[in-house]
Each structure stands twice: as C-alpha cells, then as structure tokens.
Specification:
- It is built from 8 helices and 8 strands.
- It is of the alpha/beta class and 245 residues long.
- A hairpin with a 2-residue loop joins strand 7 and strand 8.
Length: 245
C-alpha cells in the first residue's frame, strides 16, 4: 500500500513539506466577495478533493490573503487534544484516527498548521458514520455554528460545502447558508493530476485559470496541475486493532 505508514515517515514528510514559495493569484473582485462573506456571516467555505498535495497551500494562501487565524477542518473532533499536543511539541500524531488514509489528513496540513501565527483550529467531524449523509452534514454545520469561531475559513470535501441541496442530500454548506444566507463557498477547480484517497488516483479535469476567481458570482480556486499528497494510512486490520474494534 503506498502512502506513509510509519510515524517517522510522516514526521519526515511534514518536515520536508515547504509552505513558502507558493503564490496564489487572486482576482480582486473574488477577494472582495470572500471578504464580504466573512464580514456578513463570519464564515467562508472552501471545498476540496481530499488527498491533493496543494490543498493545504491553498488554505494557507487564503488565510493570509484574508488575514484569518481561525480555521475549521473536516477532521474528527475527538482528535483536537492530539492536535493541540502536535502544535505544542510536534508529538501526538500516533493516534490511529490520523491514519485512516482518506486524504483529509496529509503531511502538508500539519506543516501548514505550523505556518499560521496564533492559529485557532476547530475540528467538526463527529467521526461516527450513521449512513445518513444529510444527518452527518447537519451535525457538522451545527458544530461549526456552536464553535463561535468567526471569522473563520471552513474546509471540507467539496460535496459538503455546496450551499444548495444535491443528489446526495442537504450538504453542510446548505445548512450553514440557511442560518447565514450571505455565506459564500469557494470550490477548488482541479485540472490534471494525482491524489490519494485510500489509494493513489489519477484524474483529468478542467481548470484553465490558476488562483482565486469568480464566475457568475461563484467563487473558485483553479489548480490546473496538482500532485498526490503524502497521506498517513495504515491497513484496515491494524487500524481496527488499534481502535479496539
């Protein structure tokens, strides 16, 4: 199984991940629209495809452009104590929930979190999958609102950050927009590249414009080319044993 499966390997990948040198082109009208969402609702959504190397760089660039120090991530909320330990002394990454391999957690994210001064992080995934997609999203929205972290960038998989109903059900973004109608969502538009969710995957999409831009009042970040993230991933049997199931 590709991906990183040892703690030493993960820590080495975090150290090697460079957060400097990445520049996100920003269209002024798009930046103004993102700022209005923060001013009027306290929140801005960012939808990603998990397991892409550049995702944490986009997060970092947006937070810097918008002068944000509050970040909410679609990570299991019961990992917050371990995350606090990591941010304090670089340990705490041995908990099995870091190692699910679904691409939400990457070496780049850990490096990015260290690059934001005075960072405050909220984790809003409950970690229990009931099979009811809309219910999970409603609970995630509830956690975001109850955290009272405004102004904040809220990052989740792009199926969860849409602000209207979809074939899957009612996304978190739609629940949040119901409470705060002026809320805006930024969707990362991917071109060609590779990503890692449980295994390496290739995709060829269309993203002609790099950076933050608007189309018909919608917000996008274009990544014409992208690469596979380094994702902590242990085999299912080992995860099950470590989680006590």
């Amino acid at each position: 199984m590709p991906g990183v499966d040892t703690l030493d390997g993960l820590l080495r990948a975090v150290t090697e991940f460079r957060t400097d040198g990445y520049e996100l082109p920003v269209e002024q009208a798009a930046l103004d629209r993102a700022r209005r969402s923060l001013e009027e609702t306290g929140l801005l959504l960012l939808g990603e495809v998990h397991g892409v190397r550049e995702n944490p760089l986009v997060i970092l660039a947006l937070m810097r452009a918008l002068d944000l120090t509050h970040l909410a991530l679609e990570w299991p909320e019961n990992l917050k104590p371990q995350l606090d330990v990591y941010l304090a002394d670089d340990t705490g990454l041995d908990h099995p929930l870091w190692w699910l391999g679904d691409g939400r957690v990457t070496a780049g994210h850990f490096a990015m979190l260290k690059a934001v001064p005075e960072l405050s992080v909220t984790l809003f995934d409950g970690g229990m999958f009931t099979g009811d997609w809309s219910q999970r999203d409603a609970l995630m929205a509830e956690r975001v609102l109850s955290a009272r972290i405004e102004p904040a960038l809220v990052v989740a998989g792009n199926a969860h950050t849409l602000t209207s109903p979809t074939e899957l059900g009612l996304p978190m973004g739609a629940c949040l927009a119901s409470a705060r109608p002026a809320l805006k969502s930024v969707r990362i538009q991917y071109g060609s590249g590779s990503f890692y969710t449980i295994e390496p995957r290739l995709t060829k999409g269309f993203a002609a414009v790099a950076g933050l831009y608007t189309v018909d009042e919608e917000l996008f970040v274009g990544l014409p080319e992208f690469g596979e993230a380094t994702v902590p991933h242990l085999p299912f049997e080992l995860l099950r044993d470590r989680l006590g199931h």
